[in-house]
Design brief:
This protein has 141 residues and is an all-alpha fold. The chain has one domain. Helices cover 74% and strands 0% of the residues. The chain contains five helices and no strands. It is globular, with a radius of gyration of 17 Å. The N and C termini lie far apart (53 Å).
Length: 141
């Protein structure tokens, strides 16, 4: 993964891990943070698309070891987990690592691992918002 994508992921993590201003409405603060995150998320997506095309080329040449976890995919998943609220971060990080290991040990290519990690990173912004949304209780009969 090129340095640009790593820097963009760090910027996005920094934006989304800002503390919510408790003096104001948390929904408005989250909306503001997500607005700030839109441009870095788009830039990150473009950088990742570039990285995936490079990985595709390398994968086509057989430059990956069977059963080996791609370090760049691990870094993307670490960034995805850091984008989530602190209360849920460890659980999702462990799920991401477990799924990545399963993908790698099933003989899938580095490209497939990067594709999985990219999907998780892209979905972490909406998941962050969803995890912060209060859960509705089911109505009792």
């Amino acid at each position: 993964m090129n340095t640009t994508a790593v820097d963009l992921a760090r910027d996005l993590v920094e934006i989304l891990t800002l503390d919510l201003d408790l003096d104001h409405d948390p929904v408005i603060a989250l909306d503001r943070d997500l607005d700030f995150a839109r441009a870095p998320a788009r830039a990150l997506a473009l950088a990742l698309a570039h990285d995936l095309s490079l990985a595709r080329t390398a994968g086509d040449r057989g430059q990956h070891g069977p059963g080996r976890v791609a370090p760049s995919a691990e870094r993307l998943l670490d960034a995805a987990a850091r984008l989530l609220p602190a209360a849920d971060r460890a659980r999702y990080a462990e799920e991401y690592r477990s799924e990545l290991r399963e993908i790698a040990h099933s003989g899938r290519s580095r490209r497939r691992q990067l594709r999985y990690a990219s999907r998780q990173l892209a979905s972490s912004v909406p998941l962050h918002a969803e995890l912060l949304t209060p859960r509705r209780r089911k109505a009792s009969p």
